[in-house]
Amino acid sequence: MRLVLALVAVAVAVLAVSGCSMLKDASKSDTAKAKVGDCINVIDGSSTDSKTAPIDCGDQKAVYKVAAVYDKKTDCKEEQTSYEETLNGGTTAFLCLTPNFKEGACYNESQNTGYKFVDCAAPEASFKVTKRIDGVADEFQCDAGTAVGFRVVPDPKTTFCLGSPKS
Q: How many other CB atoms are there within 10 angstroms of residue 125's CB atom?
């Protein structure tokens, strides 16, 4: 299943000198300045104005890992979602993101806003990661008897087995 969404952040700034890349880069959020391999926490997901922040990849709240960085809007791979930051109607940063779920952690999944880390007891918890398998992209590694779903990331190869957040 492909989650189709774009996490979009809107940077509001007035540039005195148009086209100056130094000012353009200075107006970018910390998320927009992320590099491949960095991780992102979705604080408040939105299809038009997400609140995100870079975070250590080992943290449970590191929901996404940056897979690619562009200066213009582009197509991400099927299993990825995107983060776009705009300024005065133009794209200033475009990131392709892959899930970076942690075993034992729970997440909320929304078609409009993507994934967000949540407490497993929270009513908005959609699923719990019962098993994370790094180096393997194969849903058949998940136990059919206990798994309620899976997410597979081909690059880097990762399989996430999903269960009920209440388990």
A: 20
**Radius of gyration of the chain from Cα atoms?**
17
Contact present, 5 and 114 (Cβ < 8 Å): yes
Give, for all 167 residues of the chain, the pLDDT tens digit.
333 344 444 333 333 333 444 444 556 788 888 999 999 988 776 666 677 889 999 998 999 999 999 988 999 998 888 888 887 778 888 999 999 999 999 999 887 778 889 999 999 999 999 999 999 999 999 987 766 889 999 888 999 999 999 87
pTM of the complete model: 0.77
**Kind of pairing between the strands at 114-118 and 106-110:** antiparallel
What phi and psi, each to the nearest 5 degrees, are found at residue 125? -65, 120
Q: 148 — phi, psi (to 5°)? A: -105, 0
Quote the CA–CA distance of 26 and 22 in Å, as a whole number.
6
CA distance 92 to 121: 38
Q: Which residues contact 94 (CB under 8 A, 6 or more apart)?
A: 69, 70, 71, 72, 73, 74, 82, 83, 84, 85
